[in-house]
Amino acid sequence: MRTVIVGAGSAGLICAWRLSADPRHEVVLVDAGIDPGPDVPPELRTDILLPPEYYWQYTDQDSGNFLPRGKVFGGCSAVNAAAAVRGHPWCFDAWGSELWSFDACLPAFRALEADRQFGHEDHHGSDGPVPITRYEQSTFDLAFQDAYRRHGYHPVADHNAPGALGFGPFPTNRVDGVRMSTLVTVLPEVRTRSHVELRASSEVLRVLISDGTARGVVLRDSHGEHTVEADQVILSAGTFGTPEILFHSGVGPADDLHEAGLPVVAHAPQLGTNLVDHPLFQMNVEVTNASELPMPGGQGTLLTYELPGEHHPQGQIFAYHAPFFDPTAGPNTVAVAASLQTPESRGHLTLGRHRARVHVNFLSTPLDRARAASVVATAGDIIDDLAAQGRVKLPDSPWWRSEDLEHVCRAHVLPYHHPVGTCRMGRDADSVVDEHLRVRGVDQLMVADASIMPTIPRAHTNLATMMIGYRAADFAAEE
Question: 152: which residues sit within 8 A by CB, 6+ positions away?
Fold first, then answer.
């Protein structure tokens, strides 16, 4: 069986690693980004702000915000902050499929991780390729924990314990300062397998489909366009990239395909819809003691808590040393971040002959605006507590103290860089892929990345995306 996997990121590399463990499966792993080779350069191991060539250049059309997606082997796992939070059981149970319930996904989560503190627990793994740890907290982070405690929140040792809510250290796959991406953790083993071909700097333009069956892909590299034949194709090009490839292959809303002058191979009316990301808000303050700073993003203290309402609405608050993400921030600047983890607003991609145009559409519903304002107000209360303790100094007229916070939040919302949902998985006929991740209307074509998520987990999405890649390999092996 010869399989082409398009996209060597969080899901694609895990899928290639898992599938090629059986030498009967010949795998061609294709990515438009570079393969940096066995000696991963320092910036891809440690840095958070990388040169432009490591990113796809997507922008939210409505806000102008940059939407970085990793364009390198390792994908977003090679460029992110390495926060390693799974999500709760109800995140996955809400996907509406027993095949994707938390209990069904847990074996893959366990197989992927080597949790350094909780690997002995039944809901964790200790032997997987991705190490996960939690760091000793800084003095400032401990002060943040004290403030959380004063406001009635409770400590939690492991944010990846099923149902855990409260404050405690971020789980992270950044170990000894190194981002343990799929580039670092699984690609070295994949390189040793003679039945795996790696094709870097090769952008897939479309899937070759004839008689309703995927036969390979057409890609473009420095030598021009080429055809790579396969018995099956797995698209792991991401929430923006996978819909683009499907659309250019003739899969998508029929009217839009006709308008773009493309053939209609399979009518997929919801391709490119259902886009969702966590809305994020940043409140900058200054520490009063320059020797006491919070830890970098994804390593300090994380607070998760439920909001009033049904179906577990959730907020998230954390602080980090602002220069970690923003080189223009002063050396004593602390960013207090707040996020609504259960948005109901949905965006979409505009698909055509060229690169997809992204419309994230944050806070487009009254409930999202009200809940976002509530989370920001709670973060503001924590900031006021720290200011009363003499630990931080607020700017003049902080935006988060507005009397019309719902309106002001819309002006300050930022992407959290967790986009999902544009190739929704489901049992209904309008879903883009079925429960086994097969593209409806095309045989031997699958999608394995964050685009298949029907709803967004209440967590950073990288571990869940790896889990999807792992399970996709098992589905592909059954084909």
Answer: none
Q: Is the dihedral of CA 147, 151, 155, 159 positive or negative?
A: negative
Q: What is the mean pLDDT of residues 383-400?
A: 96
- Residue that has been written with the tokens 């971040």 in this structure: 337
Residues 429/440, Cβ–Cβ less than 8 Å: yes
What the block records as the tokens of 373 is 């304002």
Coil vs helix vs strand at 226: strand
Indicate the helix (H) or strand (E) that contains 59: strand 55-59
DSSP H helices in 282-404: 366-388
Q: CA gyration radius for the chain?
A: 22
Burial of 12 (0-12, 13-18, 19+ CB in 10 A): buried
Burial state string for 341-354 with b = 16 or more CB within 10 A and e = fewer than 16: bbbbbebbbebbee
Say if residue 479's pLDDT is above 80.
no
Which neighbouring-strand residues pair with 214?
A: 209
Chain segment 441-463, per-residue pLDDT in tens: 999 999 999 999 999 999 999 99
